[in-house]
Amino acid sequence: MNIFRLAGDMTHLASVLVLLLKIHTIKSCAGVSLKTQELYALVFATRYLDIFTDFISVYNTVMKLIFLGSSFSIVWYIRRHKIVRRSYDKEQDTFRHYFLVLPCLLLALLIHEKFTVKELLWTFSIYLEAVAILPQLVLLQRTRNIDNLTGQYVFLLGAYRSLYILNWIYRYFTERHFVHWITWIAGLVQTLLYADFFYYYFESWKNNVKLQLPA
Amino acid sequence: EEDLERKDEL
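Above: the input entities. Below: the structure tokens describing the complete assembly.
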């Protein structure tokens, strides 16, 4: 494992912890998109089916369990926790799941490496992960007032995706290893979705003002 | 053949 991959995993882990910490300690999920969290839960549930069939390493299994556990507990908090659920802004978080899930399903059926159930679910999860942040980005743009923790959560997620790209580039030059083009394109699309957010995040950081996205 | 590196990525 190279440094970019490890840093990517760590920022991913940090993003999830920041979000759980916010929800658990402040008992608020204001500004957090339940739609995005449900999509991530679906992404991990379809991608990590291999924990039952393959063993890669303790690190790999532990990380998969953390991402599965955290995404489902965040969904549980927002839907079921008697205090947290009150802070959920349903009126603003209106993005439709099927608008993203159906095209990804269709794309996975059309473009994949192998036509097996496990492979199709993996490909579907790659496509869905690329766009799962969209409801969260739309919500941020609508609410305007972004609290620090939500801003950091999205920033860390974007950093994780950028580091994965660097990891693939590094592996290409050091190991001559080609990541499959499906992974490449989905990864690039996903990273580009954060470009706009990154711009405003750095601007607010540079000028030391509160993060606000333009309407 | 299986791509072990791909399987390792999260």
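Note for the figure: The radius of gyration of chain A is 17 Å.
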